[in-house]
Write a structure and sequence with these properties.
This protein is α/β, with parallel strands linked by helices. The protein is 31% helix and 22% strand. Bound molecules: adenosine-5'-monophosphate-propyl ester.
Length: 654
């Protein structure tokens, strides 16, 4: 891991918030922020208990804070009862019933707005429809939908009745959908006749049919939203149109008051084995941190139009589309489609047209948009923006500066937020009215989040700029609770490294002399492609499932736009293509992986070799493969290789 841990990035510029921003911010000075840190430090449990009382509406108030009796399984506020949908919608109705909750823009340009009252009615009708189909507390429901308000309605409706949703990103293939349905043992899939993306229709229903055709015995019904109006097959008795499900349903639905620890959702994410893991989140703890980070990090207020560009298929689309913005009674914007339809000005046009004030996206999107030049953003009025955010991967200082100047006009603070599917919400991030930011750093842990960098023995690294393991030393409310159906994996992956003492994030990081965190990358076999997590083993398993592939090894290489690109080394059954080139096969394998996992997992490069480089004990020398993928000179000892001649093949020289 040392190659990940040597730190090379040096960035010394600092950007304090403007006096104007600080003056209007919820937390407007370093002193105010320090006071929060102090409170959390002096009485950690009490700090979170107080916030949980103040920030959420309870049906049955809790009396207990953190329960560590079953560590490393931690529970918060266990004797309370609460409902997330009630907290996101109902509690705002008296004061904000007519306020816009969701502004939606479809890729074709259609616009729809929903007030809190309308959202309430639609969530209740849908929840009643689910109940009529027999869905009840604890049942798993898979949501495989385009980015339309109905995706949020479906999630909220599940939360309302205590059903556990598992949203599957619409870009995942039928095979990935099937794996997730089966692992979760879901009773229902909610999907659409398609979604609009990149000028094309995403065939969500066809993929659902394919997945169900190959297994998924637990599924009883498929609910189908009409979004594109193109023809899809309907299976009598199994499939129900969304409109039929809600027809005649009452617009009131008493929330199911669940225990704080009741699972709100599962979300599958990649790890270092071939099988994605179902990260299980709680109800109350999860919601609390979504709310706090909306307030602390996004400084959300009633006048804001908040736009997080993430799809609901990712954790960002859970915490900062479906839940956090609504729980804080805000107005959120949803956009269905791609950033380049009809051209690369679309995001900036949406910011202008809907007067977006807070814009949150991934560095990969920023880099892709930056590449198109300044004319696109300069053609639109971006003066409504007041705060910008990034998430998902380290942002390079060049992209940061472009975001700061060209989009933020040097006015808007940038919050670089570090967190994970597992953390539930931001863990390390600036407080925009109080923290001076540095391009490329996610700055400091939030109050009540005990993040640190430790060495391989688990000792805190006090020397500035020394890389180590990123850990969180105390359980926090929105942390994952387990891996669905595989609790051992939960314990081993997140707590095993340091004897159950710390949560281990799987990232390496360093702290500079000011205590600012700089994320250096993953230390496991997980890639970060365009801000999306992918296990190298997942891609390898997909490749070897092809009849012509005997063995495969996948590594990441740096990519200007995607952050990391996927580089696959493949050993075929039968002879290696002459000169290592077979364009038809390469295309076939790339499409194969897209079909097995989804287009985001398509290898960018495929190189054929007679063998993979292995140590004497048979371990693939991944570090060597990474060096080659980067096009760097090989300096490590390769004398143990059985067949050194393959080095030329791996390097594309033979
Ligand atoms: O490596 C870190 C990177 O993304 C990983 C988490 O991926 P995922 O669970 O898919 O969640 C992404 C959205 C929260 C982390 O382990 N990562 C996330 N945010 C940042 C980051 N790396 C650097 N800087 C960030 N701000």
């Amino acid at each position: 891991m040392s190659e990940n841990i040597d730190s090379i990035l040096q960035e010394n510029r600092q950007f304090p918030p403007s006096a104007e921003f600080a003056e209007n911010a919820r937390i407007g000075s370093p002193e105010q922020l320090e006071a929060l840190y102090r409170q959390a430090e002096e009485d950690y449990e009490g700090f979170w208990m107080q916030l949980a009382r103040d920030e959420m509406d309870w049906h049955t108030p809790f009396t207990t804070g953190l329960d560590s009796s079953n560590a490393p399984h931690y529970a918060w506020f266990t004797d309370g009862r609460i409902n997330v949908s009630y907290n996101c919608i109902d509690r705002h109705l008296a004061t904000k019933g007519n306020q816009t909750a969701i502004i939606f823009e479809g890729e074709p340009g259609d616009i729809e707005t929903l007030t809190y009252r309308q959202l309430h009615d639609r969530v209740c009708q849908f929840a009643n429809g689910l109940k009529k189909q027999g869905i009840k507390k604890g049942d798993r429901v898979v949501i495989y939908m385009p980015m339309t308000p109905e995706a949020v309605i479906a999630m909220q409706a599940c939360a309302r009745i205590g059903a556990i949703h598992s949203v599957v990103f619409g870009g995942f293939s039928a095979a990935s959908l099937k794996d997730r349905i089966e692992d979760a043992g879901a009773r229902m899939v909610i999907t659409a006749d398609g979604g609009n993306r990149g000028g094309k229709i995403v065939e969500l229903k066809a993929a659902t049919d394919e997945a169900l055709g190959k297994g998924c015995a637990s599924i009883e019904h498929v609910v189908v939203l009409k979004r594109t109006d193109h023809n899809v097959g309907i299976v009598e008795g199994r499939d129900i149109w969304w409109d039929d499900l809600v027809a005649g349903q009452a617009s009131e639905c008493e929330p199911e008051w669940v225990e704080s620890e009741h699972p709100l959702f599962l979300l599958y994410t990649s790890g270092s084995t071939g099988k994605p893991k179902g990260i299980q989140h709680s109800t109350a703890g999860y919601l609390l941190n979504s709310i706090m980070t909306m307030k602390w990090v996004f400084d959300i207020n009633d006048k804001d139009i908040f736009w997080c560009t993430a799809d609901v298929g990712w954790i960002t689309g859970h915490s900062y589309v479906a839940y956090g913005p609504l729980a804080t009674g805000s107005t959120l914007l949803m956009y269905e489609g791609a950033p380049n339809v009809p051209d690369f000005g679309r995001f900036w046009k949406i910011c202008q047209d809907h007067k977006v004030t807070i814009f949150y996206t991934a560095p990969t999107a920023i880099r892709a948009l930056m590449k198109q030049g300044d004319d696109f953003p300069n053609a639109y009025d971006l003066s409504s923006l007041r705060l910008l955010g990034t998430v998902g991967e380290p942002i390079n200082p060049e992209a940061w500066m472009w975001y700061h100047k060209t989009i933020g006009k040097e006015r808007c603070p940038i919050v670089d937020t570090w967190w994970q599917t597992e953390t539930g919400s931001h863990a390390i991030a600036p407080i925009p009215g109080a923290t001076a930011t540095k391009p490329g750093s996610c700055t400091r842990p939030l109050p009540g989040i005990a993040a640190d960098v430790v060495d391989k023995d688990g000792n805190p690294i006090t020397e500035p700029n020394q890389g180590g393991f990123l850990v969180i030393k105390k359980p926090w409310p929105s942390m994952l609770r387990t891996v669905w159906g595989d609790d051992k994996r939960y314990q081993d992956t997140y707590w095993g490294e340091f004897d159950n003492r710390y949560y281990v994030a799987g990232d390496s990081a360093r702290k500079d002399a000011d205590g600012y965190f700089w994320i250096m990358g993953r230390i496991d076999d997980v890639l970060n492609v365009s801000g999306h997590r992918l296990g190298t083993m997942e891609v390898e398993s997909a490749l070897v499932a092809h009849e012509r592939v005997a063995e495969a090894a996948v590594v990441g290489r740096p990519d200007e736009v995607k952050g990391e690109a996927i580089f696959a080394y493949v050993v075929l059954r039968g002879p290696r293509p002459a000169g290592g080139v077979d364009e038809a096969l390469t295309k076939e394998l790339r499409n194969w992986v897209a079909k097995e996992i989804g287009p985001i997992a398509k290898p960018d490069d495929i190189r054929y070799a007679d063998n993979l480089p292995k140590t004497r004990s048979g371990k693939i020398m991944r570090r060597l493969l990474r060096t080659i993928a980067k096009g760097e000179k090989i300096t490590s000892d390769t004398s143990t290789l059985e067949n050194e001649a393959i080095l030329d093949q791996l390097q594309g020289k033979a």
